[in-house]
Structure prediction request, 413 residues.
Amino acid sequence: MAKKPKIYIIDVTNRDGVQTSRICLTKLEKTMINIYLNELGVFQSEFGFPVTRHETNYLNANLELAELGVIKPMRLSGWLRAIPQDVESAFKAVPKLKHVNLSISTSDQMIIHKFQGKLDHKSIIEEMTAAVKLAKSLGAESIGVNAEDASRTKIEYLIEFSKAAKEAGACRLRYCDTLGCESPNNIYERISKLASSVKMDIEIHCHNDLGMVVANSVMGAKAANDAGFNAYINTCVNGMGERAGNADLISVILAIKYASGVRENYQIDERINLKKAWELCKYASYAFGVPIPINQPGIGANAFAHESGIHADGALKDRRNYELYDFEELGRGEPEIIETGRQITAGEYSGIKGFRNVYENLEIEFKDDKEAAKVLELVRYANVHNQKPLTKGELRFVAKYPDIARKIFTMEP
Prediction:
């Protein structure tokens, strides 16, 4: 009996999320997000751009963390243009890279008005297949091919493009709703036809320009599963992303687990552990400097708040009267301690005594002053790097992996 296809999560916060206008993440913050995504059970993190020089040390350091088992079993994948030059540069800069997504535009709009004669329909397929074959020859273990603007691409050409990608060695086709113009029924029909014709797993990458990003992502995944293939939904933590954002990670998981007609018939990756949701989303909010909306599904301040008499009375009698899922499932419910008295913090000008006090409160001890001084120097750099106070998780990371932290803080222009 054939295995039932599943829905997996490929989070793109560290690639598409950081392309959000007016915001950014430091390399330490991107590393922490990878660690938290791994703990949440995400299948793959698109962790950056291997051809971008300032990412090189961070990417290599995170692959080192993967080898140590710190970021494992989650895959770390790089985003590249689907051209041989990018592939060659990427594997030269990041030789231990094993998972990649190669992207190229496929719609008439992009071919005519973006490439403006540099590439046509035929040469796009030629460039993409050459890039896929080169990536495979250089050691790529999994290759996803991204059809940018797939939602505005003629379905016949999209099928031709996808078949060529599969034949060249790609294992997945990323259907990109680049402009967020899809609707649930339309994306279901198109991905049904695509998956059935090409017979390969499908990634669904949607944007929220019309406010339907989670619905479109789930319907796209359903279509791939109904055709007999695995689906990989692209998400961002807290729905970050270009323009109106990408599919919110937690909303997508909750929709698959609890939406009527979905929860009974479709299976999400069993590694998903929502207990880490609260910690991850709060950290990402702090790192991005963007507050979580109070009405954010599962994570917002009002997600489990009841004020009206009828709702409060019903929720107190039985939570299922007005709550679809439990706050404990998302790692919520524990009291949070806020210091209101004296505080000693670790910053770029910290001295050794205050610094050791901070780590003693985290129940971390150093074997001698030499080790403490080494970590103190790194914590100073980390504060300059982040330009904000370090979280407890970041402080623990620097103390536990000082040599890797040093690589992450180092950028060579």
Q: What stands out?
A: The first strand starts at residue 7 and ends at 11. Residues 369-386 form the longest helix (18 residues). The chain has a mean pLDDT of 95.
